[in-house]
Amino acid sequence: MSRIVYVNGTYLPDEQATISIFDRGFLFADGVYEVTSVLDGKLIDFDGHATRLQRSLSELDMNTPVTMETLLEINRELVARNDITDGLVYLQITRGAAADRDFAFPDPDTPPTIVLFTQNKPGLADSPAAKTGIKVISIEDQRWGRRDIKTVQLLYPSMGKMMAKAAGADDAWMVEDGAVTEGTSNNAYIVKGNTIITRQLSHDILHGITRAAVLRFAREAQMKVEERAFTVEEAKAADEAFVTSASSFVMPVVEMDDAPIGTGTPGPVAARLREIYLEESRKTAI
Length: 286
Ligand code: PMP
Fold this sequence. Notes:
There is one protein chain. By secondary structure, the protein is of the alpha+beta class. It has helices at about 25-30, 45-60, 70-80, 130, 155-165, 210-220, 230-235, 270-285, and strands at about 5, 10-15, 30-40, 40-45, 85-95, 115-120, 135-140, 170-175, 180-185, 185-190, 195-200, 225, 240-245, 250-255, 260. The strands form 2 sheets. Strands 7, 8, 9, 10, 11, 12, 13, 14 and 15 form a 9-stranded mixed sheet that branches. Strands 2-1-6-5-3-4 form a 6-stranded antiparallel sheet. The structure holds 4'-deoxy-4'-aminopyridoxal-5'-phosphate (PMP). 4'-deoxy-4'-aminopyridoxal-5'-phosphate binds near residues 182, 211 and 245.
C-alpha cells in the first residue's frame, strides 16, 4: 500500500505528489515545518506544534494557508488513511512558487505550498535507544541566528548527524562560544546534583514543544530546573544528560566525545522524565 500524502488540498499517493521546480522551499529553503508524534493513533502536543507553526510563519511574514482546525483535520485524516498507530506527521509550508526565480519575496497573494506526510514507526515510545542511551559528539554551531524559527534549512544539522556517524556516535551537540546550544534535532540538558540545566529560550535555539512540557512536568514533580547556558566541560562533568524532541521524547545521553557522562548509563532523572512525559502526553493526546 503506498503512503497517502496531502499536497495543497489534495490527498494522493506519495509517488503522484508533485510541487513546482520554482517552489521557494526548494530554491531558497524559504519554508517552515513541524513534526508531531502519534501514539496509539493520537496526536501528541498538537496545540503546541500548531502554535509554534503560526509563530514561525508570522516571523517570516508568510501566510497561513489553513486554519488550525483544518490542520487538525488533515493530520487526523492522514493518520487514519495511513493506518498509523505509532509514528510521525511531518508538515511543510513554503512561500509557494513564484513565476520565476527571484530573491525578492513574490506577491503576498502567491499561494503557499502545504505538504503533510506520515512516517509509520511501530513501537515509537519503546525505542531500544531509550534503554541504552545515545552517544554525542560536540561540534561548532554554524547555523544562522534565528534558530527559534523552525525553517527547512536543515543542511548543517544534517552535516552534524553525518559527523556524528563518522565518529561512531549517534548525534552531535552544537557549541557556540564554549556553551552548548542544542542537539542537531533536539534540545540538550544536563543534570548536576539534583538540578536539571538547559539553555534558556532565545533566538539561539528552537523552542522545543517537548522541552516546554518536560520542564513543566519537572517543576510539578518538585525537580529543580535552571534555564541557562552550560559549557562542554560542564556537560562532561555532569551526573547525567539527555535530549528531548517530538520524535525521541526524552532520550538519555551517556557519552560525549568518547567520554562517559556520569556512570555512562541512562540516569534516573532522564528515565523518570521520560516516564512522566509519555504518561502525561498520552492523556492529553487528541
Ligand atoms: N531543536 C532542534 C534544532 C530541533 O530540530 C528540534 C526538533 N524539531 C528540537 C530542538 C526539539 O523540538 P520539539 O520538542 O518541538 O520536537
